[in-house]
Write a structure and sequence with these properties.
Layout lengths: L4 H23 L1 H21 E4 L3 E7 L2 E6 L2 E4 L5 E7 L3 E11 L5 E12 L2 H6 L4 H17 L4 H6 L1 H16 L4 E12 L2 H43 L3 H12 L14 H12 L1
Antiparallel strand pairs: 1-4, 2-3, 2-5, 6-7, 7-8
Length: 279
């Protein structure tokens, strides 16, 4: 993070030194020039000794190449030339796992990518123990993704994305702890399959939906048949049930003049005939 404090310190010292040098220059030219040069060098030296780290940053101080201390956040000082500072971002970082082709357990080629969310918890380990922790995390997550996907079938891959992310996270977390990193979560973003496989899966899904529709219709017809049989049995036990049902059907036709109902044999005669047969 850029800070204007070192620049401000540089100009303040330079102005003060310039004012003193100018006063001395009027009395002694050589001494005034020498004092001006010293003031300029002193301004550079002191301004480079002032460092500022933001709230989310840590500064690792190396003195003559040897790790000394972790500074920040805020204002801190170093010894110019002797000390070197490496600023580390401690916020949650987002790392993209590039799309790659992987062979599943049932020998289906798929292209898959993901994203890793992690942060630095031990800044000294992240800088000292690994050369580039961003690149190391990327490559390790990539390898873990291949290993996990290679042990799953296509159906598992499509239905268990969250579980795949958790398994990859467990593998990466185990190694990244030695690097001073903490994996927050790993998400699978996109799974791309060959077009022929997509068409086959679409036909399979269509056939499955048609199968469910046929089974549902058959079950409905079966239930309707049971209900009709039960209704017929109930009406057969009651003397006037059939007559009432007939009248209800006639009433349901409506008063439209286009509907004409002709009863060739009255219901009463049919009932009397049925009773005579039973005797």
């Amino acid at each position: 993070m850029f800070s204007g404090i070192p620049t401000l310190v540089f100009f303040v010292i330079l102005i003060l030194g310039g004012a003193v040098s100018f006063g001395v220059y009027q009395m002694n030219n050589v001494l005034g020039i020498a004092l001006g040069i010293v003031s300029f060098l002193l301004a550079i030296l002191i301004s480079t000794a002032v460092r500022v780290a933001a709230q989310w940053e840590k500064g690792l101080v190396f003195r003559l190449g040897k790790f000394l201390d972790v500074k920040g956040p805020g204002l801190f000082f170093i010894i110019p030339v002797v000390d070197n500072v490496v600023i580390v971002d401690t916020r949650v970082l987002t790392l993209d796992i590039p799309k790659q082709q992987v062979i599943t357990k049932d020998n289906v080629p798929v292209s898959i990518n993901g994203v890793v969310y992690y942060r630095v918890i031990k800044t000294e380990d992240a800088i000292i123990k690994v050369q580039n922790y961003n690149y190391a995390m990327s490559q390790y997550a990539l390898a873990a993704l291949r290993d996990v996907v290679g042990t799953m079938t296509l159906d598992q891959l499509l239905s268990e994305r969250e579980q795949i992310g958790k398994e990859i996270e467990a593998i990466v977390e185990k190694e990244s702890q030695n690097w001073g990193l903490e994996v927050t979560t790993i998400k699978i973003q996109d799974i791309d399959m060959p077009e022929e496989l997509k068409k086959m899966m679409s036909r399979q899904a269509s056939a499955e939906r048609e199968k469910r529709a046929t089974i549902t219709k058959a079950e409905g017809d079966k239930l309707a048949a049971f209900n009709l049989a039960a209704a017929a049995e109930t009406m057969a036990k009651s003397t006037g049930a059939m007559q009432l049902r007939t009248l209800q059907t006639i009433d349901g036709l409506g008063p439209s003049p286009s509907n004409t109902v002709i009863l060739a044999v009255p219901i009463d005669i049919l009932e009397a005939f049925r009773a005579f047969i039973k005797k």
